[in-house]
Amino acid sequence: MNFQQLRSVRETIRRGFNLTDVAAMLHTSQPGVSRQIRELEEELGVELFVRAGKRLTGLTQPGQVLLPIVERLLLEAENLKRAGEDFGRSQSGALVVAATHSQARYALPQVVRDFRGVCPDVSLHLRQGSPDQVAQMLLLGEADIGVATEALAGYDQLVTLPCYRWTHSIIVPPDHPLLQVEDGAITLEQLMRHPIVTYESGYTGRAHIDAAFARAGLTPDVVLTAMDADVIKTYVELGMGVGIVASIAFDPDRDRHLFALDARHLFEVNLTRLGLRRGTWLRSYAYSFIETFVPTLTRDVVQDALNSEFVECDYVI
Q1: 268 partner at 20 to 30 Å CA-CA among 35, 79, 159, 198?
Q2: How far apart, in Å, do the first and last CA atoms of the chain sit?
Q3: pLDDT in the model for residue 88
Q4: pLDDT 10s digits, 145-155
Q5: Is the separation of the CB atoms in 30 and 19 below 8 Å?
Q6: Is domain 91-162+272-307 annotated with CATH 1.10.340.30?
Q7: Strand order, beta sheet including 158-166
Q8: Domain ranges of the chain
Q9: Backbone phi, psi, residue 87, to 5°
């Protein structure tokens, strides 16, 4: 048994049983992948894959049972490599952070700047995606740290730690009727009289927006959805509707042609989470990044979370 055989099995599943894609990923030939899989099956004494002729079409029952073990072995092999590198050169290397647009655009810039001051020899790679894409990058080992509001807590293979709470704001152009509401205490009934521009489902607290209207028995006129606040604000400026965005996404200096109204009384408070793949080894500078982002998430706190089967904590700033 060798790691190339295990990688062939793992990538075959990840690539939808397409051995051509697996061979390209592993920089080998398709017959080579088939041979690695067959040799492992012979050594284990069971078939891992369902076959239709020469094609692989799915996992057998033994394959489904053994796959988590294959994943753990490969993860521990990567952990061993990282641990060795950590002792050899603890403050240099590469760190991949996956985040949604809102987090990358509004929550992380100062964190990245401060982290660079602490760890100047670390090459930082920031990847953006939807909350589910952030989770998948963590699960596939393509990212070390994930930051998102939605989705992360729904994956058992991830450890999630709370980072900070935030609320929504209502964004309107000058002279909009909602600016005349006394004390700015806008109701959902008043809000739904106007077309709404807000986040796509699954992004940046959209679930809490929908839930608030549903509880009130109201159906808002959502005329446009987008994945990030900058796009939403652009269309609000064009007069397409009232925007609902994360409060951190409004900057009075940059958004001089818009006004923000507090909506915390309308929609539930949101929680941004930091995600890590369960069982992974983090380099020393990864802990530095996390603590720069959330000072209460010290190395000890994060390690305790990674070593726990279930994580329930509230270290929120």
Answers
A1: 159
A2: 47
A3: 53
A4: 999 988 898 89
A5: yes
A6: no
A7: 122-128, 93-99, 145-148, 270-277, 158-166
A8: 3-85, 91-162+272-307, 168-268
A9: -75, -30
Measured distance CA(169)–CA(271) in Å, rounded: 15
Q: Within a 10 A sphere around the Cβ of 114, how many other Cβ atoms?
A: 14
The more confident residue out of 26 and 216 is 216
Q: Quick one: tokens of 90? A: 């603890």
In terms of pLDDT, which residue wins out, 42 or 164?
164
Residues 6+ apart with CB under 8 A from 138: 98, 145, 146, 158, 275, 276, 277
> What is the token pair recorded at 25?
């990923």
Per-residue confidence band for 311, with pLDDT thresholds at 50, 70 and 90: very low
197 vs 177: CA distance, rounded Å:
16
DSSP string, 148-195: ESSSGGG-TTEEEEEEEEE-EEEEE-TT-GGGGSGGG---HHHHTTS-
Q: Which CATH architecture has domain 3-85?
A: Orthogonal Bundle (1.10)
Average pLDDT over residues 29-48: 85
Same fold, 3-85 and 91-162+272-307: no
Q: Which secondary structure element, helix H or strand E, spans residue 85, and what is its range?
A: helix 61-88
Tokens of 192: 């739904």
CA distance 82 to 151: 27
Residue 289 gets which letter from DSSP?
Answer: H
Q: Is the pLDDT of residue 256 over 70?
A: yes
Q: Which residues pair with 242 in a beta bridge?
A: 196
Q: Cα angle vertex 110, ends 108, 114, to 5°? A: 115
Tell me the β-bridge partners of 146. Answer: 98, 275
Contact (Cβ atoms closer than 8 angstroms) between residue 282 and residue 144? yes
Classify 168-268 by CATH class: alpha beta
The average pLDDT across 216-242 equals 95
* Residue 213 tokens, joined: 């209207």
